[in-house]
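Researcher: Let's try something more involved. This one mixes different molecule types, so please make sure each is placed in the same coordinate frame as the others.
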Amino acid sequence: MPYLGNPAQLSAYREELQADYDPHQPYIAVCGGTGCLALGSADVRRAFEEIISKNGLRIKVRMKFTGCHGFCEKGPLVVIHPQETLYVSVKAKDVPQIIEKTIAKNETIESLLYRDPVTKKRIAKESEVPFYKHQKRLVFGMNGMIDPTSIDDYIRIGGYSALAKSLFEMEPEHVIAEVKKAGLRGRGGGGFPAGRKWETCRTSHGDIRYVILNGDEGDPGAYMDRSLLEGNPHSVLEGAIIAAYAIAYGVSPAEGYIYVRHEYPLAVKHFTAAVQKAREYGLLGKNILGKAGFSFDIQINQGGGAFVCGESSALMASLEGKPGEPRAKYIHTVHKGLRNQPSNLNNVETYANVPLIVGNGADWYTSMGTEGSKGTKIFSLVGKINNTGLVEVPMGISLRQIVHDIGGGIRGKRKFKAIQTGGPSGGCVPESMLDLPVDFDELTKAGSMMGSGGLIVMDSDTCMVDVARYFLNFLKEESCGKCIPCREGIKHVLKILNRICDGNGKDGDLERLQELGSAIHDASLCALGGTAANPLLTTMKYFHDEYVAHIREKRCPAGVCRPMVTYSIDAEKCTGCLLCAKQCPQSGITGERKKAHRIDHESCIKCGLCYEVCKYDAVTRT
Amino acid sequence: MDVSAKMLKVTIDGRATTVVAGTTILDAARKLGIEIPTLCYHPALEPYGVCRMCIVEIGWGKRTKIVTSCNYPIQDEGLEVSTNSERIQRDRRVVIEMLLARCWSSPVIREFAARHGVYDTDLEKTENEECTLCGLCVNVCRDLIGQSAIGFEGRGADRRATSPFKRANEDCIGCGACVYVCPTGCIKMEDLPQERVLQMWQNEIPLLACKSCGKRFHTVRQLEILKTRHPLTKFYVETCPECREKSLAELMLRRSGV
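Model: All components are placed in one shared frame. Result:
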């Protein structure tokens, strides 16, 4: 283990690592992200290890258990380098074949390749798979190349060179200026310019400056931060050390904290290991890389599972050992944050962007993105689309491109209906607005938000009233309950929505919902309450007809709200195949073979199984 | 340089004034005689800012935003405040309705709502709930009494002010500060012959008898705290206020030679 006492030692060590590394040697990257692990990638890894150690292969081969590659739906993923062959849904039993054919003979195994659901063609090269082709993987790019538990791997690919550059070639103000010039905005949801935040924190009055990493990712279905901490923890760490230098060097001591979800055990493990290694290498602790007077270390804190603790003031309260509740931030946390000292809090993804900006320069960074939003953004793309997973796209890309080009369009024969951006308190955007670019300001203008990066795609079988109800129910559970509008308001909105979905909506409900939504938005204490009404307000704005159908006609156009749905059988189309009768859990479908069937409405529980199974479209839903 | 000494111009509802930087909008408005409704505000405690009654619209020219006046410190020159704009009136009415629906059983809250023009609401009413969760009881116990005997449990709609684990706890000294600050009067305190009962906190604390007349007048735990924190004489803490007065009068009479 080397102790890197100065930047020259870091460069020398990197050269040494690079010299030992033959880029032409076959290398198998087995995805060890949480998604692939859940699908059995640990078995695949073991199978590779056994064969490689037992057989004494003629060709030297390397195997790495890497971080998340993003295409979690098709996991476990295995990529064979240098050919970049991507194998999807790999099982342990496929491993001998991969070694024999692909590694030994350079043959591709057709059956393991990704098959495009639209063109039905098999694609061999990872970068040519549509899911990856349209992405720009800067922050995530190295996930597939390195072993997240190896600091050497990170150093070999150039890791910590941006830190060395900051400490020895740049003044703290210079680093801040570069980040400002790059236009880096907070990736956790707020989109506040990071450079400006750093600058204010530096010029604020205090005895110590706290650098806080927010890894308390709580949006349902979102796992960008998780995959980053699991797959490339050193990039986040390096960004935070650079931030500490920029904010505190020469003004006050600095201390760091990461607040990471307890429910992310692998992220905690990998980040903890990264911090320990960095300490051993002299990249954390006293006089980092030999820079006199620059000391910084990071403590790891695990969150207790409250969604609201992702809000900066609640997070800091929680770090202090108090209940995780937000406070009014009229005096910003950069002035008085943790323990009333100047505190800089950024999302982990924001920090991961910093080494790229410092290393490659702000001009390079600003070449990607829009006027107001630069660089890339990682999204967790989920819902009713063909390709789900984590995607990193340049700012400015349209939602349509994400849904259709990367996501491969809507699954099955159904049609696109809406995309929800920004997590539970984001908004739902309709088809007519799909050309909206991914941009902090544009999304806010549309009534939604960038948020931390959740993208949920909904198809024509989704009821938008029900969607609003779902998210408000989540927010009701997660509201801390401190202020009246959020605690009481969400509860009342939900009661009205439940009534509407039960077929008991009445005139005036829409106006009432609008009024409650506006009051929750205007009068809540924190951003969580302030945005809680978004799912309600946007669905009411863009899917007004659906609300009207529920309230006036007592009809759910998507056929989701059960009390309003009736299933019946079209006698003309029914062939009397008995399939629906066999499936009905209530045995409520009667009729003889080859004769039209009937649904007994008394016993029907509206589960919709008959509708799903009928091959002749004879079951109608109204 | 002392930043707080800076004087700033501020306009509230069209009336201009000058305040020391850091003054809250609420204080500045009250100085001008402009009334802003409050519920969870108490001058002896740090503003908690949860009832949202005191919301005002602030702005610089065209850009406006809504803040709570109780804890918004005036930091910028030329701030314009509207305590009663159309938007504020609408939002405040809806928040009062939410409060009213929660505390329909509280006469104080119904009177408070009526004073602000809200007499009823179609929102679903909660039964037997008088606590608004304003936090004054919890905050006074922690910040002024220094006991932290009570706190909040639960999240969101399940939030409750309570003693830990809903059990009697020895940190409660039965001082009654929570009873005193509660805006709705939902915390009840009763002195039985032997003990003081605070039903809401499940506490029964023995009362101490006055050394002189035998009347029970404060709790044993109050006495312990008083003794440890304040340099009071034994006589002072062990005698009831009436007897103290009497004995002082007697002393004065004796001194004057009667």
